[in-house]
């Protein structure tokens, strides 16, 4: 178990890789240390929320729009997927990345690839969530849940 002094003196990769407003949103939206640890460990998961929102809204997220209570609540719902993802694999692998060169050393492949289905923009989030599905119906449901959470956020930051 780590105490507060470790967290105060150690700066993880997220500190260097996340933009200031991305870090701010993570801190504001997450109310418990478990979710915070799961989210901040996965920089790509945080970035995907912003990248997919920019695609939906056809514009980058303006940081001042993040301060709205509804935007924070929508981000909280997206981040909560890390804790209660019903399609999570139970293979003992934590997250999508493993130790290796840089931060892009995958430990998993896309669920769509595993099932030989067409790729979707939501599949990158599914990877971050450690998704394991066995049917097209499960894949469609997992994608729909992620899409709804991202769309809910995108609406709040327009």
Task: Give a description of the structure.
57% of the residues lie in helices and 0% in strands. It is mainly α. Helix 3 crosses helix 6, helix 5 packs across helix 10 and helix 6 runs antiparallel to helix 10. The longest helix is centred in the C-terminal third of the chain and has 21 residues. The protein starts with a helix and ends with a helix. 30% of the residues are buried.
SSE layout:
Blueprint: H1 4-9, H2 13-17, H3 20-29, H4 33-40, H5 43-57, H6 69-79, H7 81-84, H8 111-114, H9 123-128, H10 136-156
Helix pairs in contact: 3-6, 5-10, 6-10
Quick summary:
With 158 residues, this protein is mainly alpha-helical.
Provide the low-confidence segments as ranges: none
Determine the oligomeric state from the structure.
single chain
Average per-residue pLDDT, rounded, comes to: 85
**Largest sheet report:** none
Total number of beta strands = 0
Question: What is the distance, rounded to the nearest whole angstrom, between the alpha carbons of the first and last residues?
Answer: 41 Å
What is the H/E string? HHHHHHHHHH
Q: Radius of gyration over alpha carbons?
A: 16 Å
Helix coverage percent: 55-70%
Percentage of β-strand residues:
under 5%
The helix/strand class is: mainly alpha
Shape: globular
Task: Tally the helices.
Answer: 10
